[in-house]
Amino acid sequence: MDESSTQLVVFSDLDGCLLNKADYDWSAAEPMLRRLEHLGVPVVLSSSKTVAEMTELRHELCVPEAPFISENGGVIHWSDSLLPQNEVSTVPAENVATATSRSMILKVLAELKKHFQFRSFVDLGVEGVMANTDLPRDKAELACQRHSTEPLLWDDTDENVFVFRTKLTEHYLTLTKGGRFWHVAGHATKGQAMRQVADRYRETTSRGITTAAIGDSPIDQSMLDIADYPIGIPAVDGRLNVDVDPHRGIVASKDGAAGWAESVGRLLDQLGFDDGNQ
Ligand SMILES: [Mg+2]
């Protein structure tokens, strides 16, 4: 398909990509975000953050109405125009579709609590989350509004982690270690969610679509693997923590928002976008 005539859709991670790692500043990417808006290129944000956190961020970034992916692929927040018509009955209120529901995870954890020592977000509450993170109250409240994953503090022995993980596997759940918290989730990935959103865009246009995916860490790899144009953003120390296919991909020369803007600019040049706004 002639890519110059297709609809470009950009999928992007937030922390370390569109937002700088240290200060969450995104001002270096703002002109490029506005250029994409002018070109009618949707930017689908994809992050570990909750729907509540991302709804606020999307407002701050002034990203036009587009679906977004939260909780690392566990949740898709559909926009009204892209709501899958054949799935309307399965998409709950407020356009939020979950791969694995948090209520199911909490049910399993309530059972496992009889045998293991841990405190998840639902036990900690907003006060406990504030005490164990550097989040202020308003941000902690948004982080607690979860749909598809549950972080927890492990208070049991190292050996018991393996038993705990096996028990979770029996319920088709996964356990991964973040910084301080462990995360209980289903098997959704950012890439699977990206594929669903891309398919929906494909259904709504006769032009065909071209996808780009921007990421900086292994959790983004599933998006980069299926994108027509994978884009890797290096860490602050210059190291690249994702694999980018050299035949179709772009690696930014800078970290964070500056690297995001630079690499998207290179992509637009490569695809022949000429909007007189170089
Ligand atoms: Mg990141």
The name of the CATH architecture of the largest domain is 3-Layer(aba) Sandwich
Indicate the mean pLDDT.
91
The CATH homologous superfamily of the largest domain is called: HAD superfamily/HAD-like
By CATH reckoning, the class of the largest domain would read Alpha Beta
Strand content: 15-25%
- Indicate the structural class: alpha/beta
Discrete helix count? 9
Q: Write the CATH fold name of the largest domain.
A: Rossmann fold
Biggest β-sheet: strands ordered side by side in the sheet: 2-1-10-11-12
Helicity range of the residues? 25-40%
Domain count: the total is: 2
What does this structure look like?
- It is a single chain.
- A hairpin with a 4-residue loop joins strand 8 and strand 9.
- Helix 4 packs antiparallel against helix 5.
- The mean pLDDT is 91.
- The protein has 2 domains: 178 residues, HAD superfamily/HAD-like (Rossmann fold, 3-Layer(aba) Sandwich), CATH 3.40.50.1000; 84 residues, Threonyl-tRNA Synthetase, Chain A, domain 2 (2-Layer Sandwich).
- The protein is built from 9 helices and 12 strands.
- It is an alpha/beta fold and 278 residues long.
- The strands form 3 sheets. A 5-stranded parallel sheet has the order 2-1-10-11-12, with helices on both faces.
- It binds magnesium ion.
- Magnesium ion binds next to loops.
- The site of magnesium ion has 6 residues, from loops.
